[in-house]
């Protein structure tokens, strides 16, 4: 069973604010954020905890290129459309 993605264009209230913050932090709203938005408290945690790990120079040891390759490979293995 797949969790439906929430659409940032039609979101309201707390979910809309989460999508706005995601765009500010990450420059876009990835599908993972559209899934987390079903539970706003968890979504906020992942936004704050995950964003620094995905940016270069934020304490991680992998380059952004390697991180993106891991995301794409995982998405492909799970039949995600990216």
Description of the molecule:
With 82 residues, the protein is mainly alpha-helical. It has one domain. Helices cover 60% and strands 0% of the residues. The chain is built from 4 helices and no strands. It has helices spanning 13-26, 31-36, 40-54, 64-77. Helix 1 packs parallel to helix 3 (40-54). The radius of gyration is 13 Å and the shape is globular. The model has no long low-confidence stretch (mean pLDDT 83).
Task: Decide which structural class fits the backbone.
Answer: mainly alpha
Fraction in beta strands = under 5%
Number of domains: 1
Mean pLDDT: 83
Percentage of residues assigned to helices? 55-70%
Can you tell me the residue ranges where pLDDT is under 50 for at least 5 consecutive residues? Answer: none
Radius of gyration: 13 Å
Along the chain, the helix and strand elements come as HHHH
Major β-sheet annotation: none
What attributes does this structure have?
82 residues, single chain, globular, 4 helices
Question: What secondary-structure arrangement, pairings included, does this model have?
Answer:
Blueprint: H1 13-26, H2 31-36, H3 40-54, H4 64-77
Helix pairs in contact: 1-3
In short:
The chain has four helices and no strands.
């Amino acid at each position: 069973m797949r969790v439906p993605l929430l659409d940032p264009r039609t979101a309201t209230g707390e979910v809309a604010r989460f999508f706005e913050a995601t765009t500010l932090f990450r420059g876009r709203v990835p599908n993972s954020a559209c899934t987390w938005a079903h539970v706003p408290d968890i979504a906020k945690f992942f936004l704050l905890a995950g964003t620094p790990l995905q940016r270069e120079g934020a304490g991680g040891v992998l380059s952004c290129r390697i991180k993106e390759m891991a995301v794409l490979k995982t998405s492909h293995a799970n039949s995600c459309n990216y």
